[in-house]
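Give me structure tokens for this 265-residue protein.
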Amino acid sequence: MLSIDLATTTAVVTGGSSGIGLATAELFLRAGAKVAICGRDEARLREAEGLLRELHRSARLLAQPCDVLDPAQVKAFAQAVQAAFGNADVLVNNAGQGRVSTFADTSDEAWAQELHLKFFSLLHPTRAFLPQLERSPRAAIVCVNSLLALQPEPHMVATSAARAGAQNLIRSLATELAPKGIRVNSILIGLVESGQWRRRFDSRDDKSQTWDAWTAALAAKKGIALGRLGRPEEAAQAIFHLGTPASSYTTGSHIDVSGGLARHI
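Here you go.
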């Protein structure tokens, strides 16, 4: 089994204050890496920072508020990372949320917001950290994307289209950055446990239904072969694999983390 020591590695995780981002940060810290996380909500970011420091007493951790849609804030975050840890080696682009809407009820403004979010949440961090990654001997970018990129849903038309475009961008970046020694890959997630799903569970009609029973019913309705929602740490493990030398000969690819929800080959 491959043993990975990341003591000399700096990993940057956007959207690192909860869910997949937080689980990813914890996994890199567990492997000995220096980790920088950012998020828009400072209170939630500080809560995440406290949790990570409690789990890893000697953690080399930076947590800085940052809106990835604001290039000035992203640039400042990149500068802070370099000042604290030196050049970044791994960039995990993990920001964005889904929009439930159909073609008929999606306004021009909503389309613009969705496309801007999905593209610039990748573009701004990649631009800001690119000079650092170019100096790393093991540089990797991992983008968290959705299965919607390949398997669109009509009730999420804007998000599906934006996710498909983002996946195309990720593949293009892999080709362009390969000569610089930077690998670029993605994970495609299906339904993963999150605060959003917990809130929907809390508002369920049948209050006697347990979380396991409720999510199993949801998985059956959605057609998830493994019969449950994914866990943030399962997505984090795929990100970790793509961000480390465990996948040193992989670029321009993706890992499906959807529990069998994918219908394509």
